[in-house]
Amino acid sequence: MSNKRIIVVGGSAAGPKAASRARRLDEHAEITIIQKAADLSMASCGYPYYVGGFFDDRSQLLCSPAGVVRDSKFFWNAKKITTRVNTQVLAIHPEKKSVEFLNPETDKTEFMEYDKLILATGATARKPPIPGVDLEGITTLQSMPDADYLRNIRDEGTIKKAVVIGGGLIGIETVEALHLAGIEITLVELLPQLLTFLDEQMARLVEKYVQTKVNVILKNGVAAFLGENGKLTAVKLNDGTEIPCDLAVMAIGVTPNSKLAKDAGLTIGATGGVVVNGYMQTSNPDIYAVGDCIEVPNLITQKPVHAPYGDLANLQGRVAGENVIAGNVAKFTGTIQTGICKVFDYGVGATGLSEQNARRMGFNNIETVINASLDKPGFMKGNLLITKLVVDKSSGLILGAQVIGPGDVSKQVAIWAMAVKAKFTVDDMANADLPYAPPFSLAIDHSIATAHIMQNKLKRFFNGISAEQLKEKLQNKEPMLLLDVRNPDEFEQMRLGIGEKLIPLGQLRKRIDEMPADKNTEIITWCKISLRGYEAALILQAHGYTNVKVFEGGIMVWPWTREK
Amino acid sequence: MSNKRIIVVGGSAAGPKAASRARRLDEHAEITIIQKAADLSMASCGYPYYVGGFFDDRSQLLCSPAGVVRDSKFFWNAKKITTRVNTQVLAIHPEKKSVEFLNPETDKTEFMEYDKLILATGATARKPPIPGVDLEGITTLQSMPDADYLRNIRDEGTIKKAVVIGGGLIGIETVEALHLAGIEITLVELLPQLLTFLDEQMARLVEKYVQTKVNVILKNGVAAFLGENGKLTAVKLNDGTEIPCDLAVMAIGVTPNSKLAKDAGLTIGATGGVVVNGYMQTSNPDIYAVGDCIEVPNLITQKPVHAPYGDLANLQGRVAGENVIAGNVAKFTGTIQTGICKVFDYGVGATGLSEQNARRMGFNNIETVINASLDKPGFMKGNLLITKLVVDKSSGLILGAQVIGPGDVSKQVAIWAMAVKAKFTVDDMANADLPYAPPFSLAIDHSIATAHIMQNKLKRFFNGISAEQLKEKLQNKEPMLLLDVRNPDEFEQMRLGIGEKLIPLGQLRKRIDEMPADKNTEIITWCKISLRGYEAALILQAHGYTNVKVFEGGIMVWPWTREK
Hints:
The structure is a homodimer of 564-residue chains.
Chain A: E1 5-9, H1 14-25, E2 30-34, H2 47-51, H3 72-79, E3 82-84, E4 88-93, E5 98-103, E6 108-113, E7 116-119, E8 123-125, E9 138-139, H4 144-156, E10 161-165, H5 169-180, E11 184-188, H6 200-211, E12 215-217, E13 222-228, E14 231-237, E15 242-244, E16 247-250, E17 254-256, H7 259-263, E18 274-275, E19 287-289, E20 294-297, E21 304-305, H8 310-326, E22 339-343, E23 346-352, H9 355-360, E24 366-374, E25 384-392, E26 398-405, H10 409-421, H11 426-430, H12 446-458, E27 463-465, H13 467-475, E28 481-484, H14 488-493, E29 501-502, H15 505-508, E30 523-526, H16 531-542, E31 548-551
Parallel strand pairs in A: 1-2, 1-7, 2-3, 7-19, 9-16, 10-11, 10-16, 11-12, 18-20, 27-31, 28-29, 28-30, 30-31
Antiparallel strand pairs in A: 4-5, 5-6, 8-17, 13-14, 14-15, 20-21, 22-23, 23-26, 24-25, 25-26
């Protein structure tokens, strides 16, 4: 039997992973990676941190864990994988099982035959044909040359003002990187909120924090890039505003590079990604596809999604690499779309479905809660975490969670990601057995406490109200009693100032006669995080009040300006 | 209907939680906590950090999240719960449904009747009758007075030498606390290893690290405490060694306080803990028990265990508090015995079964792997994590995991705790969808990579060998080829020096003729963390070598002295 010939198109994350896995399982296969770019195995998720100066040695983006740059020599010596960089694949010919590419040395077209082909062609940052888009000073942050360009701007220090377009993950990371480079930033987002994997209130809290560092403009798009002598001088927004700047970074999402696949007759999905089965096999059984160029099922909705995450690319690459050698034995079944980003001193992450996504996907019977607490005890210098949990109301099935704050967001999102993947209900989470010691968590972990609050809500022990709902009631001037139940000194230091009455929880029972005579009066209770607000609501209900609501998360989740 | 009378015996963690939960669900119940100690709701897990000077305000151990000390006044005002502190319960009379206690003001016996009783009597630190045990300078670290005593020693600064007896969680935390107080410490443990929830090799790695801070003596117990004028001057060990010291802290475990329950005729288990069902109900349906005085099922073995953890105490208290009000509606089904502690700059944690515990419990068909890697990329200043994973070989069911190192251990243990609770198999974990961004993790999270290595082992892609097994082979002078496949500069900086040959992975294929002619020769391969060691093993196997083993975890998990 002759050696198996494997060609991998794409040399960033998923491609090299697939090639390496194939090599480990078959020492004798002939494995070739064809890579359009000059570099291989770039840690592309690390670009913002290189630009932001978290480290200075560019080669760290290309290194193996042992500190060796993963260039063509490395791939050959360590893995016996042939790599052809700066090489563009022009076409796939499935009927001949060959790949047509341009040899950069000869500038001539060549053909290479495969037994199995793996497409890992990635995605391209969107750059719509806005007037002026080709001016100097406009870039994306998606490739190694992009990272080099922006890092050079940091090192030169001449650019003072920049506009970042797009408030998604990459946009937010770019904002931080450029801010750390000492550049004054305006972030422009077309939608009414940042980070659309978050629900509006959570996004608003992130926005409030980002506003402390940079200028944020929502619901506004770019009408044109203005320039002089071919260089960018300002960004003109849809509403006519002109923002002077020397640099604009477009981060308005990516499009799967599926043209090669489409031209080869492979099935392409509605998202634009290549369609694959659980084995990462395309509609042609000898062609596999992995990474940012494909679509995969969302495991909750079973609907296909384009999920261009570096971790999934690696997992998919590992599966395809095994299957091209061993036959279809390994599976990647889909994603719950877990994601996280660092925003200065905040972590912002989510897993599963947000409330707005769940509703869009047809989940109508859902319940949510917001919980705010420290990640570990105050005496261990705990930091705030805010979680929004989304569950199916009848079954208690956990559909998703969003977590933000200066606390240990990464651990919280990991816990919820496991819960969603395990199809846990709220009751399962209520007795989760997590590692507790004061340096690491509260005795009742923030995630478990969130499940407890949800249990209380599902058992109808209390009714909740969100900041948005409360704001709407205020705007509609609905008659209600607003009750802050903290201590007077806390009230002096910080308060909403929306017409609330202060009755400390410890006095509420004695001062119950100060409550309205009409037991049907709507009463909204809260404290700093609304644990005491919850206890106050229970007392009022026990005294016959029928329309009491707890402002969930309390003052810590009020995303607008407070009186103090 | 008259108000329900609830008595809670015990006011530390589980008791107040149960009482508070009962209050929230029934505003009119008459709820009393009877507490032997002077304080209430002490954050007892925080004692070591108070002693160690992580914070200076003692009242922080007693505060609510809003910063109010939880004393009797607080419990009455905020929760309408009566508390009787400094009050010892003398007996329970189930037939009369009453509790007999000593009124500290009158010094007379009183009786109080209950409809439902909750026992939260805790556990007591063991203090065996060793000669000299009553000398001044010998303490435990389990109560608020203990914490006050040791904190005072820190503040006075006169004590220079101490012995800590017991290398479990509390012993290790005490070692850190006293070391931070500038005291020279010797840690003495009777068993051949520290932290028995870890397997030996993992414990050895922790020991090696602890040895860099304090003196550790294993396999040695205390024969006597020596003193002058009633004050401790030295600890005499079983082997005759005398260790001069002014302070000794005994941390050799706790015993459930189940005497009251036993005397009242309640069923006590083999662990010494009160037997309860999933509703936290004892053998008497009107008496519930929670916290460190009970035993609960281990959810993997279904065997009862004594699991005195603060987080479980709170969860159990919440369940009992609900059930005494609403009938048996809430459940706590058991524990997977997740635990963690901080050891200077290391985290040390575990969940589920260790290999030694699994074997003891009759799991004979198990597989393990050790994985060492950074927690996040090197360019983000990642720190080392070492994980040992234990699974059932035939089903791939995850039985437990142990994680140690300076990296983010807490998140890793939380992930594995969720996996064990969810009854995940290795295949489930191999495609876990965890939050990835460079500030938080590697593209393939350490936990997922651990599952991948286990998959490779279960699929028999490679054979592994542990540090102990390798050491044993060395001691037996077994003929084998030892192969380090790192780069020469790495070899110069650090190496085991146990007779190994260096062939960098990138040269192995070219130098395959340097390998023994006998293809059955035993060959052990490794690198720093053994990823390259694994690749080398695959190459050798592909060249016909039949007896190749990867030293799992590589140099990073060698728990003995290296040549350099």
